[in-house]
Amino acid sequence: MNNSMIEIKIRKIYEDAILPKYAHDGDAAMDVYAQNITKTEKYIEYGTGLSFELPRGYVMLVFPRSSISNKDLIMKNCVGVLDAGYRGELKIRFQELGKDIYQIGERVGQIIVLPFPEIKLEEVGELNHSARGEGGFGSTGT
Question: What CATH number should be reported for the domain whose range is 13-115?
């Protein structure tokens, strides 16, 4: 059981914006709700009406909900990344494939906040060998 809790500041851009919620006790992700819809020729964008202040060393990942399989939508960037320094509105973009889309007030995505390490890259001429080596794209079987 994970008892760690972090505090995240959240701002409602619009008074009637819905705060993210866990659907069930123990869920990893919180659902976010559509506050507004913007359509262009290239995408449909759902604004959540929310902005966040994440602590340094944390990232918010934005995923489609499983209900996406019942809609005529595909999330444009598969997984959204909201960095700690970003203070704008959380928006989620989809490619619209048909008429069945999310409406204002519906849950349009889910968010998970995770810590991440700071990475220092070391350029080398050669990497250590491993059992897998350079095999990729199905090299371990189908």
Answer: 2.70.40.10
In terms of residues, how long is the chain? 142
- Does the pLDDT value for residue 133 go beyond 90? no
pLDDT of residue 142: 61
As a whole number of angstroms, the distance between CA 116 and CA 82 comes to: 13
| Token pair recorded at residue 111 | 């968010």
Residue 5: pLDDT over 80: yes
Please give the Cα distance from 87 to 122 (Å, whole number): 32
CA distance 40 to 22: 31
68 φ, ψ to 5°? -60, -30
The separation between the first and the last C-alpha atoms of the chain, rounded to the nearest angstrom, is: 35
The residues facing 48 across adjacent strands are none
Sign of CA dihedral 96, 97, 99, 100: negative
**10 Å Cβ neighbour count for 115?**
10
Enter the pTM of the model.
0.86
Nearest to 64 by CA among 82, 76, 49, 51: 76
